[in-house]
Design a protein that fits this description.
disordered C terminus, elongated, 22 strands, single chain, five-stranded antiparallel sheet, disordered N terminus
């Protein structure tokens, strides 16, 4: 049996041990007397046991041989299957790789190796069974194969390892050699990972070409749109580089070719314009400040004047994702027209001043004659009493006459406004504009006469608010700069952001007198207007380089009809009322005023104002600049006016705004319209003084009672007395003064029909009309 099978060494040793044990048992069982029969029986028994054990051993060896044969067959089949699997994997056009559950490489195909091998870099140096996935990622990054890694290789390695451990959606990998790979990974049942790497470079190239074509088409469309605009347009990206513009942009700003090209720097653009003189401050700090302002991504609006005189309206708006768009509109013609209007206004004001001066001269002569005829104290007292009586009579006469004077003037303004809002020929529009300016001159003249009478009678009231003084100073600069230049002087106005509390109209009157006197009495040099802050007060000062004022005359110049001898500019005449009006106004406002002067050096006039509330001033500033929405179309308005010409003017004005007008000469006529079935009005406009001793308040009460509703209403009057204003306020109505300002009427009507209920107030002002 030993010759037919090749037993293993361990099995032979076991067999020998078994035989030895059996022999020992037989020997221990023999008696000491050497019984031959017992020995024979023992030998027989031993042989049977050996034979049985040998037979069983041979059967076990045959089973082992069959198992070895089956195992060899299975190994051959496994090797065949593995060979076929590798051939199948190698035949795949994509890269294939398999990692076990611990991230160790199991197998991959040649295509996978080719993706990660290039000149001087061969991934075969680390590709072997058992290498970790993270080590493969690190090798590709360290050898510069991954374009996506950039300057943060560790972050990319962490990201790729995380996605490998938790595969879901495909991953796109960009290689530095320009190729693109799409990686699709799936987990196996035992927790391993299988990855398929596909070269999608051609697809990416096609997509890039299609995207570039679409961008080119959009760029052509955008450029066509920009070139069709009347404004100059430029577009800068987030890096402040020029990416789009139109020809109008280059034409308006007269830019050289090197600034009108893609990629031009916004900083170079500002530097070029600053060096050319387009900006007041051309320093490097100012240019950097402009760049910082642009980087804030806030909208910017403003006006610029180029060195060639062109005036532009500039708007800058930021774009989503960074960058901004600028538009430039040429407003030179509009600004020139505004300058011409200001010049015409100044001409009219000078004419009014001349007429006022003539009237003042006549009044001065009359008073001088009275003083000269006073021979004795009694005669002087009687003359003074007569003069005071005459002054009071004049005040009462002007107050009484103002209503009758303003009524036809109000009607004329209504008709002129209606004409100006209608389409007329250019020549007719000029005539209407001339008429409107002439009416403004008449209003100003009447206002001056009424102001003098009210100051004499102490009937001036104030409306103090908090406002930014810089707005008023800017307005005065625009108003008086041409006058100063005409006189050969330089007017300098220092900007200020101080907030003061005062009556802006009366304060403007004081400063106008200061500036007028400075221009009149200064032969050469300059005039300075500015502010100084003193604790809780702001002092507004006017400096000139005139001849100066003697110390003994510095109090007298604030009296009526007092002026220094030989101080007028040639061709001009002053009657000594300007500073007297300043004195009266400052007393009403409770603002200290005074003068400092040096002979031969010049003078300084000042007025002190209390500091105001900044938030309140800002709210007032925004409210003053807000636009009123047009909500008057198809609104039913009832107009009650006893003057036919004014009634016709109101009807034409309101009809031009789209209103449906129901006219009536008094309250009874209005009620008769309603009784005949006329539609209920949505707003009532009534004159205060009506025929028969009735008032507009009476008419409004009757109409409201008939309608059963508190219809919004307002009163229009030329009566400047406080009695009328108090009566209107007590009734809860709104009050507008004649001559009527159409813009104020339109704004108030818009608020009323919108359901807004602002507090009762007077519009217009008693002194600064």
């Amino acid at each position: 049996m030993g010759a037919t099978h090749s037993f293993p060494l361990t099995d032979g040793i076991k067999l020998q041990k078994i035989v030895k044990v059996l022999m020992d048992q037989v020997e221990r069982g023999m008696d000491f007397q050497g019984n031959a029969y017992s020995l024979f029986q023992t030998a027989i028994l031993l042989e049977d046991k050996v034979r049985e054990r040998t037979r069983r051993l041979e059967m076990a060896l045959r089973d082992l041989e069959r198992s070895n044969h089956a195992l060899s067959l299975a190994n051959a089949q496994t090797e065949t299957a593995q060979t076929r699997l590798m051939e199948a994997i190698e035949s795949i056009s994509e890269g294939f790789v398999h990692f076990d559950r611990d991230g160790r490489l199991v197998l991959c195909n040649t295509k996978f190796i080719e993706f990660w091998s290039s000149e001087g870099r061969d991934i075969r140096e680390i590709i072997r069974p058992g290498v970790q996935f993270r080590d493969i990622c690190r090798w590709t990054v360290e050898n510069g194969l991954i374009a996506d890694a950039g300057d943060k290789p560790e972050e990319w390695i962490d990201y790729r390892t995380h996605r490998h451990a938790r595969p879901s959606e495909p991953i796109i990998v960009h290689l530095t050699n320009g190729r693109w790979l799409q990686v699709r990974e799936r987990q196996t049942r035992d927790g391993g990972t299988v990855g398929i790497y596909t070269d999608i470079t051609e697809i990416k190239i096609v997509e890039e070409q299609r995207r570039e074509q679409e961008l080119a088409e959009k760029s052509i469309l955008l450029q066509s749109t920009l070139d069709s605009l009347a404004q100059g347009v430029s577009v800068f990206d987030r890096d402040l580089r020029l990416v789009a513009w139109n020809d109008r942009f280059v034409e308006l700003l007269e830019l050289p070719a090197w600034l009108a090209q893609t990629g031009a720097s916004f900083s170079d653009y500002l530097t070029y314009r600053a060096a050319r003189g387009d900006f007041n401050d051309a320093s490097a700090a100012a240019i950097e400040a402009r760049l910082d302002e642009v980087r804030l991504q806030d909208p910017i609006k403003g006006e610029q004047t180029l060195v060639n005189g062109t005036m532009l309206d500039v708007r800058l708006d930021s774009m989503p994702g960074g960058g901004f768009v600028t538009t430039y509109s040429d407003i030179t013609d509009r600004q020139m027209a505004a300058a011409q209007l200001r010049e015409a206004k100044e001409t009219l004001e000078r004419r009014v001043a001349e007429r006022t001066a003539e009237l003042t001269a006549v009044n001065s002569k009359l008073r001088q004659e009275i003083f000269e005829r006073a021979a004795v104290e009694g005669a002087l007292l009687r003359a003074k009493a007569d003069a005071e009586k005459a002054n009071m009579s004049k005040t009462r006469f002007l107050a009484a006459a103002s209503h009758d004077l303003l009524q036809p003037l109000n009607a004329a303004r209504l008709f002129v406004t209606t004409l100006s809002e209608r389409p007329l020929a250019e020549r007719e529009q000029e005539f209407v504009a001339h008429i409107d300016r002439a009416l403004e001159s008449v209003e100003a003249l009447l206002g001056t006469l009424l102001d003098i009478s009210k100051l004499d009678a102490g009937a001036v009231t104030t409306e103090k608010t908090d406002f930014i003084i810089g707005d008023l100073l800017t307005s005065l600069a625009e108003e008086y700069t041409p006058m100063a230049h005409k006189a050969g002087l330089e007017l300098v106005v220092v900007p200020s952001s101080c907030v003061v509390r005062s009556d802006s109209a009366l304060l403007a009157r004081v400063l106008r007198n200061f500036l007028s006197n400075a221009i009149r009495y200064t032969v050469s040099g300059r005039i300075l207007l500015g502010c100084r802050r003193h604790s809780r007060a702001v002092r507004i000062e006017t400096w000139d380089t005139g001849p100066g004022i003697p110390e003994h005359a510095r109090e007298e110049i604030f009296e009526e009809f007092h002026q220094l001898a030989h101080r007028d500019r040639p061709g001009e005449k002053s009657f000594g009322l300007g500073l007297a009006i300043v004195k009266h106004i400052c007393r009403v406002l409770n603002h200290p005023a005074g003068v400092r002067s040096r002979l031969g050096k010049g003078s300084m006039f000042f007025i002190e104002l209390p500091v105001g509330s900044t938030p309140q001033a800002i709210r007032q500033h925004r409210l003053a600049s807000a636009l009123v929405c047009d909500t008057l179309r198809d609104i039913r308005a009832m107009v009650i006016e006893d003057q036919p010409n004014i009634l016709d003017g109101m009807r034409e004005l309101l009809s031009g705004w789209g209103c449906s007008v129901l006219p009536a000469i008094d309250g009874q006529a209005a009620l008769e319209h309603l009784h005949r079935g006329a539609p209920a009005p949505q707003v009532i406009i009534a004159d205060y003084h009506l025929d028969g001793g009735f008032t507009g308040i009476d008419a409004i009460r009757a109409i409201r009672a008939a309608l059963g509703t508190k219809t919004p209403a307002l009163i229009i009057t030329a009566d400047c007395g406080r009695v009328v204003a108090d009566a209107v306020r007590q009734e809860g109505l709104h009050l507008l003064r004649k001559p009527l300002k159409p813009a104020k009427l339109r704004a108030l009507l818009s608020h009323l029909v919108d359901g807004q209920k602002p507090k009762t107030h007077e519009t217009g002002h008693s002194v600064a009309a």
